[in-house]
Amino acid sequence: MSIERLGRAWPTRQNADHVARGTTANRVVVAISPAEGGEVATAESEALSFVRFCYRRRAVAWPELYDEMCAVAACGAYRGLGYEQLEGLGIRFALAALPRLAEMAARVMAEERGRPLAPALA
Hints:
Blueprint: E1 2-5, H1 13-21, E2 26-29, H2 43-57, H3 62-75, H4 83-88, H5 98-113
Antiparallel strand pairs: 1-2
Helix pairs in contact: 2-3, 2-5
């Protein structure tokens, strides 16, 4: 676990005074643990784990699951990861990224329901 100091790239005089007094915010950065069996977790498997975590918290269909994923990211409920850290895993909440996120959600929902995922319609 490491500590990351939040602040400006070019501190102002006022910001420098706060740093000297030790009043800046600290954020705990959580390292991602290895996957089962001691293998190093890939970004894809970790992204699927995030979606699975959200689905298990609230087992709902796609549009509502997206809302749950946003809520989990906003409060860092999944391993302390927020929007920026999740983006590093391939979880993006932008409009252009929704098809991929929806596909991941469909995959997780199918796995959780115990049935194979139907092939996508072209």
